[in-house]
Amino acid sequence: MPTILGQNQYGKAENRVVRVTRDGDTHHIKDLNVSVALSGEMEDVHYSGSNAHVLPTDTTKNTVFAFAKEHGIESAEQFGIHLARHFVTSQEPIKQARIRIEEYAWDRIATSDANSRFIGSDEVNHSFVRRNQEIRTAQITFDGEKWQVISGLKDLTVLNSTNSEFWGYVKDKYTTLKEAYDRILATDVSARWRYNWTSDEQRMPNWEKSYEQARKHMLHAFAETYSLSLQQTLYQMGSRIINSRSEIDEIRFSLPNNHHFLVDLEPFGLKNDNEVYFAADRPYGLIEGTVLRDGVEPQIPVDMTNL
Amino acid sequence: MPTILGQNQYGKAENRVVRVTRDGDTHHIKDLNVSVALSGEMEDVHYSGSNAHVLPTDTTKNTVFAFAKEHGIESAEQFGIHLARHFVTSQEPIKQARIRIEEYAWDRIATSDANSRFIGSDEVNHSFVRRNQEIRTAQITFDGEKWQVISGLKDLTVLNSTNSEFWGYVKDKYTTLKEAYDRILATDVSARWRYNWTSDEQRMPNWEKSYEQARKHMLHAFAETYSLSLQQTLYQMGSRIINSRSEIDEIRFSLPNNHHFLVDLEPFGLKNDNEVYFAADRPYGLIEGTVLRDGVEPQIPVDMTNL
Amino acid sequence: MPTILGQNQYGKAENRVVRVTRDGDTHHIKDLNVSVALSGEMEDVHYSGSNAHVLPTDTTKNTVFAFAKEHGIESAEQFGIHLARHFVTSQEPIKQARIRIEEYAWDRIATSDANSRFIGSDEVNHSFVRRNQEIRTAQITFDGEKWQVISGLKDLTVLNSTNSEFWGYVKDKYTTLKEAYDRILATDVSARWRYNWTSDEQRMPNWEKSYEQARKHMLHAFAETYSLSLQQTLYQMGSRIINSRSEIDEIRFSLPNNHHFLVDLEPFGLKNDNEVYFAADRPYGLIEGTVLRDGVEPQIPVDMTNL
Amino acid sequence: MPTILGQNQYGKAENRVVRVTRDGDTHHIKDLNVSVALSGEMEDVHYSGSNAHVLPTDTTKNTVFAFAKEHGIESAEQFGIHLARHFVTSQEPIKQARIRIEEYAWDRIATSDANSRFIGSDEVNHSFVRRNQEIRTAQITFDGEKWQVISGLKDLTVLNSTNSEFWGYVKDKYTTLKEAYDRILATDVSARWRYNWTSDEQRMPNWEKSYEQARKHMLHAFAETYSLSLQQTLYQMGSRIINSRSEIDEIRFSLPNNHHFLVDLEPFGLKNDNEVYFAADRPYGLIEGTVLRDGVEPQIPVDMTNL
Question: What is the protein's known function (chains A, B, C, D) (predicted)?
Fold first, then answer.
């Protein structure tokens, strides 16, 4: 046979599981989108169609929902660890499991202000509004021995209305751009960071706290960097996280440069003193890069931040 | 000629204007997506292609950006009023202008907490993160005499994890649904409300405050209504606004019923005590309706909340 | 009670039904997305939450799937007529039904060419590839007496690489656009046309043939019109259909002007002789209009082509 | 410094270039979306913000449009080769260029049928309708010595209404799926194939013909495979291409299993003899895999088919 099978995986993608936990009248919700990808001894199903090694994708879906009950959802990462361990340890032909999760955050609807004359605030602790500011991501991979956890976020849109310049660049025959000494810098942050937790022997990070802190450091670095290039801002965002969070060894970003072009108002006899901008869609600059703790091997794939 | 021209309009859609205002070191931003639609004496351009009455859509785009400088953007509504008045009063053939605006809210990036040892908080008042919780909308129509302002929001996702029932409904030969006495009620609110301000003689509402209050009343009514049907919740949301805000006479909602189905875990020997749900995409129930101040004529079109 | 209920409707939206019909080994498929909206005596469910008049949206979903079996799907329009008639005539409180349908076309995968040495062509008459060129739409409304059928299409993208000009327009102080004597004209056609079939007494149009013919006339008129404005092209497209199809009385279009800007290559010492264009996303001109058979009353709502 | 820079790249993404070529009255169009990613000696711009090695993303955009004039667009692949070679050979610090291209196909609008009484068919050879059936993709990478060309397509939706089974799979405690002996098999094909052309010394493939043939073989294999699993179909599609096209050494697929669930019509007293299906959105099975010519090293990244 002149062709052979290479890397392959299968599973049920985008299982939308919502878990409600009741603490008396106070409800908590976790809202996840869970995708399962299994791989192992799967030659036969590709070559002949024999499903003897195939746990159905429908079963992987059922497992997601059953585990939401059996283990609860403490965090996306912890939930993914339960699932990955289960598939690899319970099915002989399955040698590796990769769980990808998106998490949607919800805030409580506050009704306790003075204008709310209808009911007491304690009665609405079951009401939520989706936050939508970013989508949190987690990817958990297990091969029976080692763990890899890569968390992150996407669609977090940020903007500095000043403290950004761009000049001193290479000019060739196709260069027409004018240098800028005060521009808007805006991007939709997509970031993935890898934890150095790889074994059940190690103490597990506090996934929830680590996420909040990584997100905070990223935002602060974006806000506080006087930027001469988006690459410089990227590196500051990454190194701030590596330096502040010992549990994180590597982080990768995709940062589209959401161009805000100063509108030429001179034809109308108006001066545009960095006040009126056109927010462009396409094309956009795209700045991508990895920041690493010195001495560690990079593992986050180049395109992971584009998923 | 056996065919004639009916209603028609034209203009530049989706002008993405961002306006930065500097209050010393503190910057403010307004981020709008503005669509212009003009109508009037436009038979010739349709019948013969004569553009003698046509102000180019490119010019309407330029006007949006120029007005962001000339008038600033106090609110989406006020900005739309400036634009609509200009087109109708400055071009003889244009008899009506309709300005549609989407507004994207931004929050400041807070860096003043104790962990931010890098810079003082006053230095980052030019840094923003997009809120994304909902999209604010405004539609301003002017015919040279009367104003119509319809504001609203869309994509505001809310969820009650209890206090919702559904039973006592009609059963026919195609009915299989089981009655529910404790279900999740979730929806993506799309709402449009009409102001009773119609003339320059009247005192203009405070558009920003009115929006914040309408949004708040909607959320409170959603949270505080013990719901026997999504229609009941819709009516409560609408009447709360009409009763609380004298400047608003009419409101229309499109409320998809974002079904959260309780997963049957019995095959796995597990009890699902309203804990684990499957969040479905399609199909979804769609509940739409208008709530009016008694005695007023409805004006909001049936499909406006689906735009 | 100072507030009252206005127009309201409810039902199950986006029921994705696929119907396979077997004609021996030759299979046929119809692929629809069906949305049901019912209205009638629905005050109670809004005011008090009583569902005594409410046929559940779940039941309307079941009915869609059951009718695909009971009646088959001859055409989107005919299928909608079956559904609308059923809801209005079988439930006393339901006074009007509106069925909206999107249809996705599929082509057969041709395998009969000489390179297909594997099997005979007759064996693959169950294999399809989705066409995707446009989405076909239909809306059927019934109030127990009169029918209204509005069919159409959307997302049909067309382009003329010449035979389009734009000049002779109004110039005001915000006008900077240069006149164009040879430009690209491109748009995504969204059209809705209304049939004059309104009663069971009348002979029903051949919905499938009428769609194909309306689509063809639209494309031909777009291709064959030497355009001085997109409005002129719109009118030609509409009047061609009205003049050619006696069963259609009214048609409305939304035609975004998909701008293709000639790129200025002079800075690079190159001449751009209408060869290289930048295809822009936003903003875009938006030209909307209705063409009517002389003497008929317009019924298609202004925003229907934006749904 | 405890952190270091890892893999990084930058450039202008999503340049929408449309190229019109005139062959007398007959026009031809190429419609591309081109993304440039450059990498090389870029430490300084990340560490200090110095742009001394940075060719602006704006310049890479200009180059795309200028090259559309200078070189024309023979094929997406050939165009990408021109661009990649230019960036790597003209700028010392740039060591690698990766060009990603999406191509949108257009068909001519045929107006030559008997119903077209308006003009002769030769006058409309400048009129096009976008095909939309799939998006063609190409990725060209050059490091100054070796070329890598990975072409492909996405969003090609196909369906077999029979000749698909699924049974004989593993059953664990979470398995509830019933075996299927006649089911719909449907998927949105995303495929990427790698050419063994890697050097200017080799004869270059005919990119246009190779694409058409690869696409054809894929469709035929999908249609002609009696499928016991989607994995089997995937392997047949891949090996058919490798066996038929000597210029292609490797192909990777992502094939979502677009579930079509047979609707249970028994509650309504109806028998569903594989006639009426519910087309589900999420979750979906996701089958991914690489097929290789025996003896070659795989190079296509795992997630490339998910971009």
Answer: Catalyzes the oxidation of uric acid to 5-hydroxyisourate, which is further processed to form (S)-allantoin.
**D187 is annotated as an active-site residue:** no
Q: What is the DSSP letter of A180?
A: B
Q: What is the pLDDT of residues D242-279, one digit of tens each?
A: 999 999 999 999 999 999 999 999 999 999 999 999 99
Mean pLDDT of chain C: 95
Q: What is the pLDDT of residues C43-73, one digit of tens each?
A: 999 999 999 999 999 999 999 999 999 999 9
Query: A270: number of CA atoms within 13 Å, CB side?
Result: 22
Nearest-CA distance from B7 to chain D in Å?
Answer: 27
Assembly ipTM:
0.95
Q: Which H or E run contains B3?
A: strand B3-13
* Pairing of the two strands C276-279 and D15-23: antiparallel
Query: Do B150 and B99 meet the contact criterion of CB atoms below 8 Å apart?
Result: no
**Residue of chain D with shortest Cα separation from B173:** D268
> What does the mean pLDDT of chain D come to?
95
Distance in angstroms between the alpha carbons of the first and the last residue of chain C: 34
CB nearest D174 (choices: B174, B268, B281): B268
pLDDT tens for D289-304 read 999 999 999 999 999 9
Considering only A19-23, B108-112, D183-187, which range has the smallest mean pLDDT? B108-112
From the candidates B12, B30, B82, B86, give the one annotated as an active-site residue: B12
Tell me the residues of D at the B interface, defined by beta carbons under 8 Å apart: 173-174, 176, 267-268, 281-282
How many interchain CB pairs under 8 A, A with B? 193
- The four Cα atoms D7, D9, D14, D19 give a dihedral, to 10 degrees, of -120
Q: How far is A61 from chain D (nearest CA, A)?
A: 8
Q: Please write the tens of the pLDDT for every residue from A230-249.
A: 999 999 999 999 999 999 99
DSSP letter at D268 equals G
The DSSP bridge partners found for residue D191 are: D153, D253
Which residue in C4, A77, C128 sits closest to D186, CA to CA? C128
Beta strands in chain C (DSSP E): 3-13, 15-23, 26-40, 94-103, 106-108, 127-130, 135-142, 147-160, 185-195, 248-257, 260-262, 276-279, 284-293
Per CB-CB distance under 8 Å, the chain B contacts of A66 are 265, 268, 270
Strands B106-108 and A26-40: unpaired
Beta strands C15-23 and C94-103 are unpaired
Per-residue pLDDT for C170 more than 90?
Answer: yes
Chain A contacts of C281, Cβ < 8 Å?
Answer: 281-282
pLDDT of A48 higher than 90: yes
Query: Residue A117: pLDDT above 50?
Result: no
- Å between B24 CA and nearest CA of chain A: 12
